[in-house]
Amino acid sequence: MRRLIVVCEGETEQEFCRTVLGSCLDISIDAPKIKKSKGGIVAWENLVKQIGGHLREGVYVSTLIDFYGIKPKHNFPNWEKAQQIKDKYKQLELIEAGMKKAMEERHLDNHHLFIPYLQLHEFEALLFSNEEALFRNFPSAIQALEQVFVEFSNPELINEPTPSQRLKNNIDGYNKVVYGSILAASIGIEAMQARCPHFAEWIEKLKRLQ
Fold first, then answer.
1. Is the pLDDT confidence value at 131 over 90?
2. Residue 152: exposure state from Cβ atoms within 10 A (0-12, 13-18, ≥19)
3. pTM exceeds 0.90 for this model
4. 38, 89, 124, 148: which could form a disulfide with 163 (CB 3.0–4.6 Å)?
């Protein structure tokens, strides 16, 4: 069985990779958090060291990082060029391509095994992929959140307030790590792919590794 390491931004993403992503792919998945982080993104140079270390193990490596958490100070490849583009998906493509190329230019061992992925807003956007599943688990949130599904056919575009803020503000005792994985499992990868185009592209790339 092939092995995949997904470098995650936080515990919510880790739990998703281990429980939901791992169950839908015939791949052994490890999901370490970003090193030298107090929560959130670190400078690209630090991330390169971690990714490079995993690649030297001869395994596939990907990332699950919130694009909107990246700041100019983090110095991600193609960042300035991307800011000149209005289309958010084009921005993602440009930066991900830059991440991939940066690995190649450094001649890192097994750089071809790197599959960069940035989540447009945050992981919790995926939890808005299925209205029925969300309200089945949290019926008290129907009145507060049903308009979100009307406004956004594509959950990846939900922001301000962020998806996690919307869930926390309208579900009593919401625990993003615990409830995030429960909701994700209830919704399922296929439903997420159907509503979230960039996420869908990532999953298809991972499926080809099987």
1. yes
2. middle
3. yes
4. 124
